[in-house]
Amino acid sequence: xxxxxxxxxxxxxxxxxxxxxxxxxxxxxxxxxxxxxxxxxxxxxxxxxxxxxxxxxxxxxxxxxxxxxxxxxxxxxxxxxxxxxxxxxxxxxxxxxxxxxxxxxxxxxxxxxxxxxxxxxxxxxxxxxxxxxxxxxxxxxxxxxxxxxxxxxxxxxxxxxxxxxxxxxxxxxxxxxxxxxxxxxxxxxxxxxxxxxxxxxxxxxxxxxxxxxxxxxxxxxxxxxxxxxxxxxxxxxxxxxxxxxxxxxxxxxxxxxxxxxxxxxxxxxxxxxxxxxxxxxxxxxxxxxxxxxxxxxxxxxxx
Length: 303
Known about the structure:
Blueprint: E1 4-8, H1 13-17, H2 23-35, E2 39-42, H3 54-64, E3 69-72, H4 82-95, E4 100-104, H5 111-119, H6 127-142, E5 163-165, H7 170-179, E6 182-183, H8 190-206, E7 215-224, H9 228-243, H10 247-251, E8 256-259, H11 261-273, E9 278-283, H12 291-302
Parallel strand pairs: 1-2, 1-9, 2-3, 3-4, 4-5, 5-6, 6-7, 7-8, 7-9
């Protein structure tokens, strides 16, 4: 089975360790394309885990690349008004000539997310319902189905760019299958991932969709070193700087691996065996030194 490999651009990390050099991210995307990655991705946060605005960043990446797909992992639509969101996404879809993948999520129900939403005058209650309504509004505009408004330019991709859901939980699994073009969770084990993917595909079939039309993505975090103890130390330092909790705590809920490059390749292979078709990799190292070299080594091992 063909598997697409994506690299998460270190947009949070350049604020932590790179003096907010956002140009580093564009250069990294160019190098990722040259190496053979199929996609590059940018995360989203306004206040909880600050970084550059992802759609602006990906527009710059679009102008500097030609082939690699551009994804958000994941975008928080509730930080933006739906009509504005639809306009920005369709513009990026056009600029990139159809390379955009809009990975979206409601955001975790944590103080940081509630603070972000309050800052843009958005209630943190009913986040999932509000997310679904926002995506429905975007799609209606992209498909010219809104009787009160015509959004221009029209999308490059017929019907608008693909929208993937980056979320888990029973309702989210059902919604991913029934309404979205792809699923992008960070399931903590391959077994949990396989079980979730089964529910997603079942929900797609019940909604009258072809389950094979939905892309099975997965978001994996990896710390790679010459030996496992060193990798574990790097992972813990990275997670503490990024989230403010220990690596052990975060590994319980997010797909995470600390080890050698060979063990990392084997671990990723377990998710592929569980059904993953598009693997988005986040490199967990508490420095930007050698970032692209680490990405190149991992890609070589997987290929």
